[in-house]
Amino acid sequence: MGGKIRAEIKAAEAHFGAVENLYERKEEEVLLEVFKAYLFALLSKESIKVSESSISEAKEALRLAKARYEAGTALLSDVKRAEVYLSKAEESLVRAKNYYQVAKKRLEVLTNTSLGEFEVADLKDVPKVDFERIKSLAFDNRKDLKALEKEIEAKKIFIPFCPL
What we know:
The protein has helices at residues 2-71, 76-111, 131-141, 143-158. It is an all-alpha fold. The protein is rod-shaped and about 100 Å long. The two termini are 18 Å apart.
């Protein structure tokens, strides 16, 4: 009976280690989601700049179309087309601003923190990535894989005590 109790204790310890690793893996997943949300917020912020630039270009195109129409070198449809282009650019700006607000709210939700009114900081530098090293680190340090290994270890402890 002593061997079975010892095996149960070892199995419980292995199971505890597996649960611990799963918890740590969940933390890593949350960090990844926060980083992805940050990148989406950054992308949305840049989309606002692009949309503002498009509006400037559309206003200039409309001004030129009106000037050509008044000079008799363009059709009214050219003016209308420029107006539609400007409207679409303005709509795109509204959409980009909404996406940015949603992305910032997602950051707050993921971090479970009310950040108030804030701007997403620009990404200054993109680090160089050694993919082979990262892949190796990922497989060596993945908490979910380590948890599975400990679950297997826990199950193997009971194999000698299982009647066949």
